[in-house]
Amino acid sequence: MAIRLKDKRSFKRDFDRLVTMSRSLYDSDKKLSDRYAYIAYRIYVSKKINLDKNEKVLICKRCYKILIPGKSTIVRVRKGLIIYKCLNCGTVRKLGYDKGSRR
Question: In angstroms, what CA-CA distances link 77 with 36, 49, 54, 55?
């Protein structure tokens, strides 16, 4: 049975709430922050909610930890690519962007 649109909205809201809590707890309680990020990723995968490009890079696909630029990930921009490198497991993700919209 397919998931109704109303349920997908509630799962999206739960995902957003968990990511926000994970980001806010990152400095004080890393274990709880990692747990919230893992639960948010499991909601995203199991319920097949639609995320924007920016939301897809919030959680590492290998170690399931929250990615915060400067703290848990390194972000670089090179030749039309945005490169995210997780500092926990070393996974690299490359996303393209339009060079014309950079200005």
Answer: 28, 28, 15, 18
Reported pTM: 0.85
Distance (Å, whole) CA 81 – CA 77:
6
State the Cα angle at 81 between 38 and 49, rounded to 5°. Answer: 35
Residues 30-51, mean pLDDT to the nearest whole number: 94
Query: How many C-beta atoms lie closer than 10 Å to residue 99's C-beta?
Result: 10
Q: Is 19 helix (H, G, I), strand (E, B) or coil?
A: helix
- Rounded CA-CA distance 66/20 in Å is 10
Q: What is the C-alpha separation between 58 and 95, in angstroms, rounded?
A: 13
- Give which of 22, 19, 52 is closest to 34, Cα–Cα: 22
Q: 3-class DSSP state for residue 84?
A: strand
Pick the closest to residue 34 from 72, 8, 3, 70 (CA basis): 72
CA atoms of 47 and 8, how far apart (whole Å)? 7
